[in-house]
Design goal:
With about 260 residues, this protein is α/β, with parallel strands linked by helices. It is built from twelve helices and four strands, in the order H-E-H-E-H-E-H-H-E-H-H-H-H-H-H-H. The protein has two domains: about 190 residues, HUPs (Rossmann fold), CATH 3.40.50.620; about 45 residues. Helix 1 crosses helix 2, helix 2 runs parallel beside helix 3 and helix 2 crosses helix 7.
């Protein structure tokens, strides 16, 4: 069995029970999820709907003015296939109002602000519906730091957070996610023409192969390169992992209780 192939029926059962446990522990019955039209949010929505029932999952489409029409159509398609309640909230007014004060802001600042604004909306809506925010991030993004701290990383729980991107794609096939969503190039839709792999500088297949060897098999970078991976790509992956380590832990604080007299 290839390393990224898992027993998907058992994965589905495990995730279903995980979601139900999280909801029971919090005393909630409903989930809130952001629907971007991308693979990860769609797979997470399929998993959450299976665990909670369609009536207990609410999807929010939160586009900015430059968001692609294809993303909007795919998000709507996913909601309709699942039969879940869905709402549309355009975040353009609040984003533009903020950046009127900072017209020099680059694309990264704007993208991070959009991600955090979307999560701010989701958390407000979770209070409205007495619900929990369902996460949509995968393991590849977390290890690479290809996420926005307190933006798309924020959630009450993350159903697919232990799956690499290639595994999310396999899981999507098992769940019956529409092929149009599975097949399209991964994109956070942060600006027109943006693709994840174009921005990263390597493919998810490459990243997952390298990450699996570095993290799961605990190989050194030199050993990974010896297995046939590009030295420049391995170096870039290692660098991104190291520089984004702060995103994968709670904010540290100094230990002061021992100073009591």
């Amino acid at each position: 069995m290839d390393w990224f192939q898992l027993p998907w029926a058992r994965v589905a059962e495990t995730i279903t029970e995980f979601i139900r446990d999280q909801m029971r522990g919090a005393g909630r019955e409903r989930g809130i999820i952001g629907l971007s039209g991308g693979l990860d949010s769609t797979v997470s929505a399929f998993a959450a709907a299976a665990a909670l029932g369609p009536d207990n999952l609410i999807g929010f489409m939160l586009p900015y003015d430059t968001s692609s029409e294809q993303s909007r159509r795919d998000a709507l398609m996913a909601a309709k296939v699942l039969g879940i309640r869905h709402e549309h909230i355009d975040i353009t007014p609040q984003i533009d109002a903020y950046f009127e004060h900072f017209p020099e802001a680059n694309r990264l600042r704007r993208a991070n602000k959009m991600a955090r604004e979307r999560m701010s909306v989701l958390y407000d809506q979770s209070e409205r519906f007495h619900a929990l925010v369902v996460g949509t991030g995968n393991r590849t993004e977390a290890l690479l730091g290809y996420t926005t701290l307190w933006g798309d990383m924020a959630c009450a729980f993350n159903p697919v957070g232990d799956l690499y991107k290639t595994q999310v794609r396999q899981f999507a096939c098992h769940l019956g996610v529409p092929t149009e969503i599975i097949a399209k190039p991964p994109s956070a839709d942060l600006w027109q023409g943006q693709t994840d792999e174009g921005e990263l500088g390597f493919s998810y297949d490459e990243a997952d192969g390298i990450l699996h060897r570095l993290v799961d098999r605990r190989l050194t970078a030199e050993q990974v390169i010896a297995e046939g991976f590009s030295a420049s790509v391995v170096d870039r992956v290692v660098t991104q992992m190291e520089r984004s380590a702060f995103k994968r832990r709670m904010p540290p604080c100094p230990e002061l209780r021992g100073l009591a007299v």
